[in-house]
Amino acid sequence: xxxxxxxxxxxxxxxxxxxxxxxxxxTAGGTTLVNLLSSPGSGKTQxxxxxxxxxxRGGVPVAAVTADLATENDAERLARSGAPVKQAFxxxxxxxxxxxxxxxxxxxxxxxxxxxxVENVGNLVCPASYDLGESLRIAxxxxxxxxxxxxxxxxxxxxxxxxxxxKSDIATAVGFDESAFRANVQxxxxxxxxxxxxxxxxxxxxxLLRRALAVRAGETVHQxxxxxxxxxxxxxxxxxxxxxxxxxHQHDHGTQRHADAHS
Amino acid sequence: MHEMSIALAVVDxxxxxxxxxxxxxxxxxxxxxxxxxxVVPEALExxxxxxxxxxxxxxxxxxxxxxxxxxxxxxxxxxxATGMPPQLCCPDCGGARAELLSGRELRVLRVRWSxxxxxxxxxxxxxxxxx
Lengths: 263, 131
Prior knowledge:
Chain A has helices at 13-28, 44-57, 73-79, 98-105, 149-152, 154-158, 178-188, 207-216; strands spanning 2-10, 32-37, 62-68, 85-89, 115-119, 136-142, 162-166, 193-196, 239-243, 250-253, 256-259. Chain A is α/β, with parallel strands linked by helices.
């Protein structure tokens, strides 16, 4: 006799539940979480340092978590802003998960923090699948990375509420085709806004903070088409079939054909 | 390479549904993986074998059903296959207000269990992290 359980469980359900809980807790405490995704070397640490410095000068309580596989280099850079910064080690994992972030924040996140920036592991593939409890997800791309990056990494750019171009000061020197980049972003994320920044010249400095504070104040974020396919499947009660069949007998269960090879 | 994390999550989810004592052994796990889920099926199959070692899923076969990306334009009702990389603007009216009908699935559909092996001590489910 064999048994078949129809589960229909979303594989990432546990992470999604943890992310929802974290989002509720942070929002209740007046903190808006911003999840920053980009490839390594896109300049997100330098841009974030500029944003934190800008916030500190404006008297806005902000904090940052930076995730890396190893080294505290990014945390040391960000701490120069004077904002509270914590390094999250992923122990070799290529992305942050909601529970990891929750543990990192417990007992550390200063009260009254209005915006918490999370600099995810530099990787445009894996972090895209994991909700961290953010209210604003930003995908960054530097002008040196190529205009087709949004097509190569459609999940990262397709699920973003905002797309940020970094290192805009060298766009001409590296031949960045901004119109092609914008067209590629629109293909995978129609309607998303694209912001140009340069931590070196100051172009766009303060935009990330301004957007985050707007979300905190209740402004609706862009709804990506790709995210409309992420309807959460509630864990269903397993539906069980119990069968006794002759060895090798085949039959259908719903739409699937499978062989019960046991008697 | 987050397929190892995905594989471990599958093993955890399936292990939690074991309701027999001694525990039944999983023979086959069927997964639904959407074209736009950001998961490489071959990598997931490789990681699944590793993630199952020492659990009630050890030796279980993994069957992956792929789901194509489909979208529908809200204003003009046109439906189309998104392809990969996805085209999410309406190919007819160029509109930006589409809805994704399928393609993001990452779901354990069903598990087929064999009979429990008598007198086998309960095998604890493992929850290791990706190295």
